[in-house]
Specification:
- This protein is about 65% helix and about 0% strand.
- By secondary structure, it is mainly α.
- The chain has 3 domains: about 60 residues, no CATH class; about 140 residues, Orthogonal Bundle (Annexin V, domain 1), CATH 1.10.220; about 100 residues, Orthogonal Bundle (Annexin V, domain 1), CATH 1.10.220.
- The radius of gyration is 31 Å and the shape is rod-shaped.
- The termini are far apart.
Length: about 325
Amino acid sequence: MNHALRSIRKAAVLLASLEPSQAEELLRELSPAQADALRREVDALGSIDLAERGDVIQEFVRVGPLLPAGNPAGIELDAPLPQSMTAAMSAQPAARDGRSFQFLHDAGLPDLVAFLEREHPQTVAVVLSHLPASRAAEILAQLSNELQADVARRLVALDSADPEVVREVEQGLQAWLNTPREMPSGEGPGIAALVEILGAAVPSARDAILSNLSRHDRTLAERLEPPAPPPLSFADLTHLDSTALSVVLRHANDGLLRLALADASPGFVEQVVSLLDAPAAAALRAALRSWGPTRLADVEEAQRQLAELVGQLVRRGEIAPDLCGRLSIAV
């Protein structure tokens, strides 16, 4: 098979590997004669070997044009990659040495996101599942809202995807996914990969991703929310430092505070009193000295409410978790 015919076959294999809408968009970029010639070649392809499909797509992404310019019968197809990414890919070794996927780690984020935005969401999900979690988090945060939610759902679904489909995606995208390891048959990163990606994201990006995802798939967003921490106990409040405890005293009702302290340790009472101004400190001491018979259940309820108030203050950011000792774990 001469070079021109071989090149036309490569173009046909590439076209047959695309989504129908993508293929039609590509054909519209060609002259009518070129498009007709390519359609005839696609019709004559028959069954395409998966290895050949993977080789063609890998070459297309790596070197750009599949057909030589200036060939009267040829069709020049330019890879839909920004120039900076094309240059980065061209620098990779042509042999399959396990480093073909490395360019995704080093490519500029704007270029990489722009490229992935044009791809099928399933392809994007597979790509992210093969990237380090921190890199995948950067990319996922930059995707459009609709694509972001779709990719998140597909990342979770990868663990139950048809193994044959997963293998075809791997082979068809070797230029992106040519890593030393292969995804085990029938297994994928699933929700664990998405949790790891979100964990690697900065808090603002993670919150934005979860907020967007909840609008598109509330069930999945709830699965990704961290489990609710156990409620604080009144005993946990003894770990508050003076700065945090002062914030609590500004928000606590005087009656609630006095009732909660009725059964508190003398040391904790003194810590509270030391943070009050002189009149308030004297009033609290007098109230505790003259306290009459009180139901234990009422005291315990007041202590529970005070502990709940502290938890709310931590979640609202009015008490820094690192000022709370044990609270930084519990809340």
